[in-house]
Amino acid sequence: MSYHFNEIEAKWQKYWAEKQTFKAANPGEEGSEKPKFYVLDMFPYPSGAGLHVGHPLGYIASDIYARYKRHKGFNVMHPQGYDSFGLPAEQYAIQTGQHPAVTTAENIKTYRRQLDEIGFSFDWSREVRTSDPNYYKWTQWIFIQLFNSWYNKDSDKAEDISSLISVFEKEGNAGVNAASDDGIEPFTAEQWNAFSSEAQQKILLQYRLTFLSETEVNWCPALGTVLANDEIVNGVSERGGHPVERKKMKQWSMRISAYAQRLLDGLNKIDWPQPLKDSQTNWIGRSEGAMVSFKVLSTGDLPLAPSEGGGTEPRYRTSDSDIYGILLDRAKEMRKNPTLAEAKLWEILKKKGLKVKFRRQHPIFNYIVDFVCIEKKLIIEVDGGIHKYQLNADAERQLLLEQKKGFKVLRFTNEEVLNDIDNVLLKINQELNSPPSEGLGEVPTKGWDIPVFTTRPDTIFGVSFMTLAPEHELVTKITTDAQKAEVEAYVKATAKRSELDRMADVKTISGAFTGAYAEHPFTKEPIPIWIGDYVLAGYGTGAVMSVPCGDQRDYDFAKHFNIAIPNIFEGVDISEEAYADKDKTVIANSDFLNGLPYKKAMKTIIYEIEKRGFGYKKINYRMRDAVFSRQRYWGEPFPVYYVNGLPQMIDPKYLPIVLPEVEKYLPTEDGKPPLGNAEVWAWCTETNQVVDNSKIDNKTVHPLELNTMPGWAGSSQYFNRYMDPHNEGEIFSQDAVNYWQDVDLYIGGSEHATGHLLYSRFWQKFMFDKGLVPKDEFAKKLINQGMILGTSAFVYVLLLKVKTNLNNSFLLEGKTSFKDNDKLTKAIKAPKSLIVSEDVFNDVKEYGKNDLVDEWVEQFENQNEGMKISYSSDRLIRPNLDISLLKGLTDEINKEALLNTLQYSDSVFLEETPYFSQREVEKMSKSKYNVVNPDAICQQYGADSLRLYEMFLGPLEQAKPWNTAGITGVHSFLKKLWKLYHTGENGSFYVTNSPLEGGVGGVEPSSESFKTLHKTIKKVEEDIENFSFNTSVSTFMIAVNELTAEKCNSRAILEPLIILISPYAPHIAEELWSKLGHNTSISTAPFPEFDGSYLVESSKTYPISFNGKMRFTMDLSLDLTKDEIEAAVMAHEKTIAQLAGRTPKKVIIVPGKIVNIVG
RNA sequence: GCUCGAGUGGUGGAAUUGGUAGACACGCUGGACUUAAAAUCCAGUGGACAGUAAUGUCCGUAUGGGUUCAAGUCCCAUCUCGAGUACCA
Question: Keyword RNA-binding, does the record have it (predicted)?
């Protein structure tokens, strides 16, 4: 009986579906007593093109692992579903008017059929579709949860918004340490309670984890939609090439930035590929540095130098440096011995963290203050204890700190702190909330500060200018009259350039001088303030302190505008370029930093900056909040309606809010999103239903949100929903989530590194904070499968120019037609292109002509009077050729089939000889005509062959080209495997029992066969655990080759063998398993136990090397000692021949490994 | 530019802790079977040189150095390819 794979595979696929073989047990169900294992694939977007052979690669790998874990006794959940909201269906709807739901359902059908044909062990009872209202109900629900939450930086987690409101009611917002919008106005509890509800809502919106904000987007008026950065190519839309402009729009955003640090930290505890972690790290973009404020000097007027009697006070730094060490020591000592009151207040200041950071016993100028908030320039002193330092100078000190340095000093007595702490706190709060006093700064200013963020505060003495982004708000304020024209012209010029232009054109250096100067906080030297578009308004503060010697961009800018480039690095030449190395840096020309290496200089300078009160240590993140609105139809609608322009959440019990029907899927004429076309899209607060727009009265019926959610909304929690997919009362039961916990193995493409995988982690952490999930990372282990590449074919084409020199001719439908007295007399179809060989192609390319072509042209012209054909080297093309137009699996072009295609119907082959296409490895894609469809492979070779071959191609994570020809190898392996079990008469099934199993006349398998089996068990088990599936396929081949040679037909060998192979080739395994007499599925048969005793060897074939080069091998007993081995080797005739009389200097013997003779 | 990954026969790729480089396949060559083809089976197959042959010698894991008795594997430098990212201060 031969191996009829089509029948076998269909039979078992039907069996699995009917018996629900792969249904995973939830808690309480039979099977849930087993340990759980959750294997997940990144679910697919069901595109119209269906699957190609690259898609199932990861699914096959995860399926093998899932099946292996079932053999190992786990309750395995291996679900599958569809990420079925998406742009292609919407585009198709716009073009054809077909509802996206319809096309999506059709595509899913194709996907399902294809997936079933490959024999995956998915638990289809858990299937989810993101576009199914029963599913997106919960996506909407999560959105509401996010809306009702804020991020408390003190507890470092998300909390319900009600906890924030109660803080506001009691003490206003000063003490709140939250992730929020910038620039929130401070208010007290009284103010809060007096605010109108609307005012309160507006304030709360600034704290919520999902919030409305004005976001700058890439607006494409022609498409009526917002485009992602990668949808824009060269400043125009990728699709259609329409112009794109920057536009501000009110959109929903997610406060993912609140989780930046936790998202970073979490990477350490998950087993994900390093490149993926790196790109997330990169994306989050944490940088440590300092905020430093530079004062703007009165514009135009340079301050007089101290020697000229100017306003700057004597350089206090010198004395600082002298007492610096003393101060520090004292401060440390005092921190160890706080007074009772100090300790109490510190506990509160530290823990309550009044949004700002306080330091205790901190040196400020020449003093040590009790508590200081450097950011807010607030000093708190507690009196009554013995001031060990400056005992009688409180008044003088306060004068200096307040009047000269711009600090506010609050004083409390010990009693106040100990007995009336609330009042103390209130005063502190009030002070923190009051607008910063203009103060009596020591330098005449107009009160403007330019804060900058720098990662290299250690290079602050190298600052020779400052650069502001052209959009910086201070630009217009500080520019002097003389520079006004130039600056304005520059600002205008940059505004015209799009973000992309600016990014693309990095080389051009441009900028303008404002005429204003800032004061260097240490040297007090004036430094010129420039503007330049290399500074981005959106990052940091939109301003930089420029250190040309240490930053290449600053260097180039300085060179271009002839600004000084002071060198502050010891022993470094900066005449050619900036020196950005950190590790080898030694600072010079920098006052108290001189001679310090990078790390020490950083510590010292940050300490100094904080002490002197013009800056503080700061950690910055590059990651921005994620925009969550899309101006599309085919996405989740928001559960949001608007009252007086303010968003209101719909009560979760009325979810889902179902996507409305629209006439057309385009934006409305006035630029509203497609949902603006919906006629029934308003919310009635009385009936709690979606009602007709005509009923909108803004009292009980309100307009609903017109945007929809982005693609990542539905995929950010689907892995948890799989745990309890049909639950209608909650997103998933706590029972289910506590049983399944998290994904044990997640397999998918690396293209999701910073999208899906970052947002999912964010939502998971949020759900964790809310106590909904037990793990704050959703996937323990993740593997990126490599792409399977296609092998494209190319054809060489010479385009022809056809002319006629007869004046009564014209071109019609690709033919040259001739007419006489309005009658068509004849029509000659002239080929438009000539398909040539590579040689001819290259000939024409190089010389502009070729003899064979000339010959053909001459012949054609002779046969067709009046026709003129010309060609040239610039009319050569090399288009992709559809690989279905090749003969079988060869590179030979099927000429007839090619000429029958529309594209080449006007072409002619130059020569009669066979043509061969050139092959090249490229991404597999429809547009490159190199797609290989798995259906055809399953038809011709079977799903088991496809599965094995996809694994056999190479390591899972690596990209590799597909070559269908190679599949014959694994296919003949399966045939050999089949034969191994069919050694009876006429190829009938034949297996012998061994005597131990009670079979009378049974045969004990040979020790070789046992050895083969057990080394296979060992290797395959190791391979699966290491996700090295390609090597286990080889191992199977070796095992079957060996067992065939050994003529093994023992059940004791063949039964365990088929379990080993079952995860890889499940259909043939089930068939052989049932033939072996089992009447249940092989899927939960226990994995064979490895027994090392079968592999124990008594001897080893030693490689005998001379000077490291292997010369011959020798079989030696493993019992021999080193000396005995040496004696045996030295006595060998080949050893004597190799040595040729020389005496070896040394003999290296590693028992069981190798012998190496040196000399 | 920066970060990460990878370079092994004609091809896909093997090679535990450094210990017989090229497993297993594809392809190719030769043979068996066949009228023939397909399928199947058998043998050979990194390169160069010597020999009728068995066999032997030399060269070989991107390039150049180094460590070691021994390097595809470890170290240093360079080149090439791929992925991600980018005026991120």
Answer: no
